[in-house]
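Ticket 4471: requesting a sanity check on a complex prediction with nicotinamide-adenine-dinucleotide. Repro inputs:
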Amino acid sequence: MNITVIGTGYVGLVSGICYAELGHHVVCVDKDLSKVEILRNGGIPIYEPGLQELSAKNTAAGRLSFTGDLRQAVGQADIVIIAVGTPSLPNGEANLSYIDQAAVEIAQAMNGYKIIAVKSTVPVGTNERVANLIRSWTSERFDSISLPEFLREGSAVQDTLHPDRIVIGADSQEAADTMAELHKPLTDQIVVTDIRSAEMLKYASNAFLATKISFINEIANICEKVGADVTRVAEGMGYDKRIGHAFLKAGIGYGGSCFPKDTRALIQIAGNVDYEFKLLRAVVEVNQDQRMSVIRKLETIFDGELSGKTIAVWGLAFKPNTDDVRESPAVEIIQYLVRSGARVKAYDPIAMQNFKTMHGDNGVMWCDDALEAATGADALCLLTEWEEFVRVDLGQLQSLLRKPILIDGRNVFKEEDLADTAFIYFSIGRPRLNQGIKEEMSALNG
Ligand SMILES: NC(=O)c1ccc[n+]([C@@H]2O[C@H](COP(=O)([O-])OP(=O)(O)OC[C@H]3O[C@@H](n4cnc5c(N)ncnc54)[C@H](O)[C@@H]3O)[C@@H](O)[C@H]2O)c1
Ligand SMILES: O=c1ccn([C@@H]2O[C@H](COP(=O)(O)OP(=O)(O)O[C@H]3O[C@H](CO)[C@@H](O)[C@H](O)[C@H]3O)[C@@H](O)[C@H]2O)c(=O)[nH]1
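Returned structure tokens:
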């Protein structure tokens, strides 16, 4: 098959490279020519484990190429996949301007029958909108396919080559069969449905996972008050096959380019048909508040006074193994600390440059390694569970901090890790591990 993918963000790039890996001829198009340049030179504009090697292999095999020339790339395609961004508008609705623009550009480049698949996450009805737009520009035949993507950043290659399922929304049996054939080497679990159900299925999946996270975070908050351990609670719950272990890790809430925007968009999708999605509104509200749990703990420790304190921050990415800082909890936490007059020393193994580019310097002191950030700090907040943080020598860390205060926003340390240390340690929903009772704090503050 000749496949053209529009957009070389996470989804376009990873899926394009993986279709090439399956033996298809793939052209990835981006209007951002600086990305095309990086890709053509063998680079990858995002940090995603395993992607560079796969890209190099398939480019060398002559199956994969990158271009800014959408017209030519569409002209030679049997299947065109739209994978452009659908960011939030100020009211939470999905911004469809990139989708619309891509649709018009595809229409103008049509030179015969093609399948046009939308991989971007789009509100119900968007595939029809795309089809109508294309029809208004060209009389060439085409079939629309909704092809929602379920990859996770940080494990995107694995997720794409070994997906739990492929969802194909179609109103043409022939086009659905072609798409099923294309994805057959990846999984037997291919769900073929109508287009609107496929569009809804994507939002429902993300909203459900976000709900699990907010649920366990609320359980964690109650655990803190009643003396229970949320990690044991989640473990025990997870053995129930109807519940499962996944997405029950309590922490500082979900971030990233998908859950926050897609939960907001689904609330709007419901609102547009006069349905108030009360449960999802609460999920979003809980998530927003959860970010502040780190701040609340710091304020308790320092008697409400963060001004003049030096706070080390470990982790800026919204999760490990990615350089993505879009809607990362670290953004609001750092901004709050800076506003409160604290001096912030921050470190992330991969995401520091992205953070500076997107959110500016913020008066933060950027550090070259984790221990440099911790040195001389009055407290350390761990916000992303990067492996190098999990493996830190806690004895050495303790000796470098001015005060041995550790706020673990991701519950990475266990009781035995802390046993021989004098850390004043706070995590999420594990009050028995919260070392550092009020008297110790008074002594420290005094
Ligand atoms: N990031 C993820 O992990 C993920 C996973 C599943 C689904 N999604 C969904 O996939 C979509 C894309 O997400 P992303 O994170 O890959 O996006 P992104 O914003 O990182 O990248 C989109 C790319 O498309 C390019 N683009 C926009 N309009 C174009 C046009 N007309 N012609 C050529 N290129 C164009 C942009 O320059 C950009 O490089 C979104 O709807 C998102 O919700 C994302
Ligand atoms: O138990 C958990 C699991 C995740 N998270 C947080 O949730 C966010 C999202 O994590 P994850 O889902 O792993 O990352 P994404 O790359 O955003 O992937 C989600 O969003 C994508 C875009 O729609 C979908 O394709 C994926 O299926 C969906 O998992 C991160 O901030 C995590 O720290 C938790 O707090 N607790």
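Notes from triage: The longest helix spans residues 195-226. Leaving this open until the requester confirms.
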